């Protein structure tokens, strides 16, 4: 038993020869991932000069700064052109020791993730990756010194940028980026960075994917949105606080973006109620395929609305709703004749009947809380292929079990299979 445990702990680099590595890696496709949690010196010694190793993805996850220093130094001085480098460490500090080895290395970074770290006396990590990085994800990065406000990084190759709740002096380093395809931004509560968002939106005409989580400055951004030249394919618009109604400014900004991007959007995700004006705009989009939104409209009054029939939407996810949303659900289902995948947090009897009546092409149904207690007809959901749920009303399960198997509909069998899975999972 002891020998078996020791074998599991052996570094694989001690087992395979450089010749075997070459033979293995030459058959790897670029999309394949190779992961090693700690970049040891042995890693580089054993693989020799294999060119196939340049596609490897390095992930550094260590618990102490000493371990990080050693692995980072080995990585930076390896002279290898690693495409993806991910550094994820709660105690990450970019200090002078790492800066020294960084200036020696020739690594050309393509994808970099810095998470929960701190820059001490200089911005050398940005300098190392500026010319080559294509995908950059920064989350919870702090800066302990006063940055020169005139410092600007151009990042000529940067295509995908994620800024998630970083210090303001870090985010401002990216205001001159001009070649972004993807911009994912989430603002810290105490900041007001609408000027940064304005500049990035105005300077990136090639942007295809935009994700915004804004607390302040929506009105100022709204004033320039019609000047933006990009044509989005994917939009995510999230408010920072769940279960809190979207502010008037945020809703107006969202509606303006939806109106301007209505001819190009293919995927749309909104984590709060977008209002009836927003809903009407959404159902006029002719290229929209995937839609995620909430219909928990709180105390808002229900006006008489008419939604266009939308034949392009094939998937709908509803993250939150009220118990009595039948009115708006009826309008939605009636306008989605080509719906194939439906995912929702709650389904009751009347919701299920309306869905089946108007969405005959439905193939996949995902329901978090399936609260129905009967299935009306033998041919209910004629094209359904998959049903999954986390919580199924016991009443409908007992009614299905009371029937002979030959008399159960196809949908009833799917419900019973899902209920069986829940019982096995909870056991």
From TrEMBL:
<protein>
    <recommendedName>
        <fullName>F-box domain-containing protein</fullName>
    </recommendedName>
</protein>
<dbReference type="InterPro" id="IPR036047">
    <property type="entry name" value="F-box-like_dom_sf"/>
</dbReference>
<dbReference type="InterPro" id="IPR032675">
    <property type="entry name" value="LRR_dom_sf"/>
</dbReference>
């Amino acid at each position: 038993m002891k020998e078996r445990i020791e074998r599991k702990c052996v570094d694989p680099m001690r087992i395979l020869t450089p010749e075997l590595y070459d033979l293995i890696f030459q058959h790897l496709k670029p999309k394949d991932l190779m992961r090693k949690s700690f970049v040891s010196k042995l890693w580089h010694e054993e693989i020799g000069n294999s060119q196939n190793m340049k596609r490897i993805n390095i992930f550094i996850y260590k618990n102490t700064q000493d371990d990080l220093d050693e692995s980072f130094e080995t990585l930076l001085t390896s002279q290898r052109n690693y495409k993806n480098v991910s550094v994820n460490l709660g105690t990450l500090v970019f200090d002078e020791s790492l800066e020294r080895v960084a200036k020696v290395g020739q690594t050309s970074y393509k994808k970099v993730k810095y998470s929960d770290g701190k820059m001490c006396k200089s911005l050398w990590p940005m300098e190392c990756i500026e010319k080559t990085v294509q995908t950059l994800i920064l989350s919870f990065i702090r800066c302990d010194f006063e940055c020169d406000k005139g410092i600007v990084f151009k990042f000529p190759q940067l295509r995908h940028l994620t800024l998630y709740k970083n210090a303001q002096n870090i985010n401002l380093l990216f205001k001159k980026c001009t070649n972004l395809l993807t911009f994912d931004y989430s603002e810290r509560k105490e900041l007001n960075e609408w000027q940064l968002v304005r500049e990035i939106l105005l300077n990136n005409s090639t942007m295809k994917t935009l994700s915004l989580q804004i607390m302040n400055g929506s009105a100022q951004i709204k004033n320039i949105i019609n000047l933006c030249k990009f044509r989005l394919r994917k939009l995510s618009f999230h408010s920072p606080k769940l279960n809190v109604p979207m502010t008037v400014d945020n809703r107006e900004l969202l509606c303006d973006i939806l109106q301007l991007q209505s001819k190009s959007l293919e995927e749309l995700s909104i984590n709060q109620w977008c209002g009836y004006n927003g809903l009407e705009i959404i159902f006029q989009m002719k290229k929209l395929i995937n839609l995620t939104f909430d219909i928990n409209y709180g105390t808002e009054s229900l006006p008489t609305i008419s939604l266009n029939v939308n034949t392009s939407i094939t998937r709908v996810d509803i993250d939150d709703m009220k118990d009595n949303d039948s009115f708006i659900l009826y309008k939605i289902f009636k306008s989605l004749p080509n719906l194939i995948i439906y995912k929702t947090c709650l389904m009751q009897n009347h919701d299920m009947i309306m869905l089946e009546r108007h969405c005959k092409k439905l193939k996949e149904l995902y329901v978090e809380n399936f609260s129905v207690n009967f299935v009306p007809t033998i041919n209910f959901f004629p094209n359904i292929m998959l049903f999954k749920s986390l919580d199924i009303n016991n009443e409908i399960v007992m009614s299905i079990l009371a029937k002979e198997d030959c008399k159960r509909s196809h949908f009833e069998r799917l419900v019973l299979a899902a209920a069986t899975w829940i019982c096995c999972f909870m056991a």
